[in-house]
Each structure stands twice: as C-alpha cells, then as structure tokens.
Amino acid sequence: MTSRTSTTSTLRTDLLRIDGTADPAAGVLPILHGLSPSTADGAGVDEEMRRNLAYGAPPSLLPYTRQGDYDRNRTERELPSVVLENEQLTATFLPSLGGRLWSLVHRPSGRELLHRNPVLQPANLALRDAWLAGGVEWNLGMTGHWPLTCEPLHAVRLTAPDGTPVLRMYAFERLRRVVLRLDAWLPAGSPVLLVHVELHNPAPHTTPVYWWSNIAVPQDAGTRVIGPADHAFHCDYVNDLTRVGFPHLDGGDRSYPGRVARAADYFLDLPDGERRWIAALDADGTGLVQASTDRLRGRKLFCWGTSTGGRHWQEWLSGPDAAYLEIQAGLARTQLEHLPMPGGATWSWTEAYGLLGVDPLAVHGSWDQAREAAGAALARLLPPAALDAAHRQAAAFGEPVEQLAEGSGWAALEIEAGDLPSSPLLPFGTPGPEQEPWRRLLTTGTLPVSDPPAAPVTGAHWRTRLEQGAEDWHALYHLGLLRLADGETDPAREAFKRSLGEQRTPWALRALAFLTADRREAADLMSEAHHLRTDLRELTIETLDALLAADRARQALAVIESLLGATRAHGRIRLAEATAAHALGDDDRVRRLLAEGIRVDNMREGEVSLDTLWLAVHPDLPVPAHYDFRMSDS
Fold first, then answer.
1. Rounded Cα gap, residues 172 and 428, in angstroms
2. What is the pLDDT of residues 189-198, one digit of tens each?
3. Using CA atoms, how far apart are residues 161 and 261, in angstroms rounded to an integer?
4. Under 8 Å between Cβ of 21 and 122
C-alpha cells in the first residue's frame, strides 16, 4: 500500500476476504441462567471494589438465545467492511460482527498493529457462546463478551464539522436496555485512530453497566506490556482476585506475557491523576498504544500462557503460529465489576489507537524506565490536550448522510412501543419479521401463537401487557420468561405451569426444569421436552446434560443410540456418550471414542471435560495436545 503526498481522510465500504466458517446461528432456546455476583477476599480489595463486584449480576441472560450452532469447516468468505484511511493508518471495521475493529495498519511501515486473525472461527467464549479472536471488540452490558459480539450493528456515514468522514455504529443492548453510539474517525495526518463511545440509559431508573474495549495484539517472547501503574489486581483460573505488585510477581516479570506459563488477568491499578493508557511494545520498542479520556478508568493485560493448553487455545482460535495477547480498557478497575448508571444518564469517552515508538533500551530496562519512556513518547504522539479536543469535537457530530449497514429491528420495536425515544442521530429503521409478533401485541392486544415461540423480549411494558391478557400457552410461556428476567422465580414457575396446563410444550417443560432444584425431576421434564422435539439438537444436548447430572447415564445412552446421522456424530453428543459410558464403567468404549476423535466445536473457555475424561481412562499417559484445553497447570 502506498502513502499519499496530500493530506486526506477517507471512508469507503469494501469486502474482507477471509477463510472462515458460516456465521454462527442463533438457537431458539432462550438463555435462562444468569451470572453469579463476583466476590473477592484477596488482599488489597477495597470497599468500593467489593460493592461493585457484588452489584449488578443479571438473574438471567434473557432475552437472548444461544449462538452455539457453528463448526470448524472453513471456506473463503467475503464480509462487508468499512474502511477509514489517512496518510498514517488504515482501519477496517466489521459492522456485521459487533462493529469490531478488525485491522489497524500503519501505512508508512505496512505494519499491522492488531492481531488480525487469519481465519474467521467462532469459539465458545462469549455470553451467548460464539466469539471471535482478534482486533478490537467492544463489550457492553454485563461481565463477559457481550451479546452482540457476533451480531450486526447499524452503521452510517456522517461528516465532522471540519469535513472529516466519520463512521457511526450503534445498537440497543436489550438486557441492560442501554443505547450504544460509537463514532470512529481518522483526521487527515493523524497518527491515531479516534473512537468516541457514548452510552445512554433511557430508563428513569439506575441500571448496572459494564464496558471493556478488548484489544488483541501479536505476542512473542519479546513483547512487553506497559502502563502507568506499579500494582495490579491479579486473578487466574486458580487464585482469587488479589492486589499485587506489578510487574514483578513470584520471581517473574509479568509484563512479558510471552514468558508466562499460566493464563491470567492483570488489571493495572492506575493511580488517580495518571493518564489512562496501555501499550504492547516489541523487542524494538514499537507497537500499539491505546489511550483514552479519564472516564475509561481500567486497564488490563490478559495472556493465554505458554502451557500446552494455552498454546492450544490460541491455535483453536486463530490457527497455527498466531500467538496473541489482549490489552484492554474498561469503565471499572476490574472486569468483574458493574457500575450503577443513573436513569437518563449519558456517559462518554474518547479512545485513541496508534503506533508508539520508544527507545528499546528503555522499554526493556527497569519498569520505571519503561513506563516513563513510553508515557513521554505517548505525550509526543498524542498530547492530552489533543485527545480532550477530539472528545469535545465528537459532541458536535451531527446526523448521518448515508446508511452503510443495518442492525436488528429490536430498537425500532421499542421506539414503536414508546419505551425508547427516537433520534435523528441514530436512525434505527423499522422492525423486521422477528419483531412482528410483538408489533401485533401492540396493535391488537394479543400476542399471536407460534411454535417455536416468538423471540423473547424483556421490559416492564411488555410484562404489563401480558399480565393483563395472557391466556394461551404461548403468551403464558412468555409471561414466565418476563418474570424470570425480573428475578421472580416463583411467579415465573406459576406461569410456566399454567402454560403447560394449556398445552404440553418443550419450551415450558424446559423452563420448568431449569427452575426445579431436584435433579431427577428436572431430568424427567427434560426427557419429556426432548420426546416432543427429538429433532432439536440444542434441546437434545441439554437433555443429555440433565440426565447425566441426575446420574441417569444408562438413559442418556439410550437417547444417544436413538439419534441418527449428523446429530449422533456431533461433538457434544459424542462427549456425552463417552461421559455416560465412563459413569457406567465401560472405559473401553470411552477409549474407543477418544481414539476415533471427539471434536467439540464449542468447547467452553475453562472447560476441562475432555482432558479430565482422557486422564480418567489413560491415567499414565499425558493428555494429547488436541484434547488439552486446560487454562492452568493445577
């Protein structure tokens, strides 16, 4: 790519060609479980952090369904992208995948500053399952990779007062019911990409809010992560959150993540008054820097570790020879916290991303030398006053001039329902087919019956409408979901039982099983649900989980042996078969299944089912690399 002699700033649409799987498909089963409040008794955790850790965990992940239907069969794909470019940088965004910043190239050197994943491969790391490694992911809502990470955002073009083109992406996050607006622009001659983020709570009441910008960058043994802190809150998959000295811990320098054996999080404890930034610099002292205005308080280093499991995870997500780490920036000090956002409030900040060059002797000298030199280089690259001016400039960005991509119709539905104000700055379009049943409720007072059920909604106004007139099984089922989303388990159970009184459906049976503490009773309910929809694989997998949890391995095997073709061969089904066989003492069958191969395409982060099964039947043999997903060596 050649650089231009004149000063320019452009925005264009393009196609990204990549080796990838098909987009992960959303299931029909809503996610009924929520998140558990976080706790921390480790040293250095203060009262403010304890309060934020205990606050805001949602009782369910409604209204979302799981996105677990994907595989690892890749072909060449073309993805719509939006590209911002000036003389210094080329930034490529993917509106159809959560608005992710996929690539940031420093044009004079041709260097990619991010971990630009060579493949498009979902894996089970997000709240809804499907997640992609690489680039910069925007995370809004609740602790974890956000529900829209593999969903399309609305995208429009607008023009700044000085003529610079601006990419605006926006969405309505339906669980927290918060509006996200994200404006990205590259002023002519700017050495940094600017991203202005605005969150708005349209409700009259306080809502818990979470935000982290997750930035993937290349990693090797010489990469050092630097930030303006000498303490961090450390946690891994073994130990509790604890405030520790940083970077030196347990005899090692944790600022070199390519030399750390175990996967871990290090949340840098930036002192008040320090500029908010973090950088990942290579052996030559160059690499990506991220800085922000003050509201984005937290900074984090995450590394996969150099163990077999850590290396396997990186290959699982990005293919061979694609090691990466993440530097992150968030509203709170740690990623385990939610913050209370008052009703009607708008929070905003501006982030900057660019190439930082620092004397390598200083970068790889003492910690004090490294952070002072990097901080001084950042001040030359982007003085604090310049970032503050960009933040003020973004407040004057006006209405869009061109639609570039369309997101979902849920915000448009909420506008029609009168629960979300419309704005010419954020044209949410019109509701689509998925929203049509709820539009019918608005216009006729009756939710039409459908099987499978209509996609779930949440919100007090929807609940009020159903409380007043739910009579058939379908409306009663949705009433139960709305009550469950409000954390009211007994009223939810009553609605699901009334729904079953009208008609026995797998949907209400499954929901009632979720609310049943007795594992045998839950297994009975799930077995009945499966009998009604033997063709629904996600329900079959949940039924097998319920049977195994109730110590009904023989019944689980009977279900498996009744399955045909691709369903029987699915990785989760084969894992359940091996687990059931082991429970019944048939370890020869387990060994045969493992030898033939069990590939679980949606292996969860932190899941140890495959390596545990291997060691149970091969106690004297090491876990093969392709079965080793362990995040720690303990």
1. 9
2. 999 999 999 9
3. 50
4. yes
Encoding tokens for residue 150? 């593999």
Q: In this structure, what are the phi and psi dihedrals at residue 10, rounded to the nearest 5 degrees?
A: -130, 160
Cis peptide before 360 (omega within 30 of 0): no
Beta strand 252-253 with 248-249: parallel, antiparallel or unpaired?
antiparallel
Coil vs helix vs strand at 492 = helix
First-last CA distance in the chain: 47
What residues are paired with 185 via a beta bridge?
166, 194
Assigned token pair, 203:
């409700």
Per the omega criterion (within 30 degrees of 0), is the bond before 247 cis? yes
Q: What is the pLDDT of residue 633?
A: 63
* pLDDT, tens digit (0-9, with 9 covering 90-100), for 228-245: 999 999 988 777 899 999
- Give whole-number Cα distances, 334 to 28, 148, 339, 348, 629, in Å: 33, 21, 11, 19, 25
- Could you tell me the two tokens for 298? 């937290």
Q: Could you give the angle at the alpha carbon of 611 between the alpha carbons of 610 and 616, nearest 5°?
A: 100
Phi, psi (5° rounding) for residue 268?
-65, 130
Model-wide pTM > 0.85: yes
Output the pLDDT for position 566. 87
CA-CA distance, 155 to 214, in Å (whole number)?
20
DSSP string, 252-298: EETT-GGG--S-EEEEE-PPTTS-EEEEEE-TTSEEEEEEE-TT--E
Supply 491's token pair: 């009223």
Given a cut of 60, is residue 2 above it in pLDDT? no
Closest of 256, 285, 272, 268 to residue 373, by C-alpha: 285
Sorted by where each starts, the structural domains of the chain and their CATH numbers stand as 11-66+76-394 (2.70.98.10), 432-500 (no CATH), 540-634 (1.25.40)
* Residue type (1 letter), 102: W
If you write DSSP's letter for every residue of 578-629 in order, what string do you get? HHHHHHTT-HHHHHHHHHH----TTPBTT--HHHHHHHHH-TTSPPPGGG--
d(CA 68, CA 130): 6
CA atoms within 13 A on the CB side of 584: 18
| Strand-pair partners of 86 | 9
537-549 and 571-583 are packed helices; what angle lies between their axes, rounded to 10 degrees? 20
Distances (CA, A) of 515 to 33, 333, 481: 10, 34, 11
Mean pLDDT of 433-439: 98
Amino acid at 9: S
Query: Given the structure tokens 């930082």, which residue do they identify?
Result: 356
Read out DSSP for 527-558? HHHHHH-TT-HHHHHHHHHHHHHTT-HHHHHH
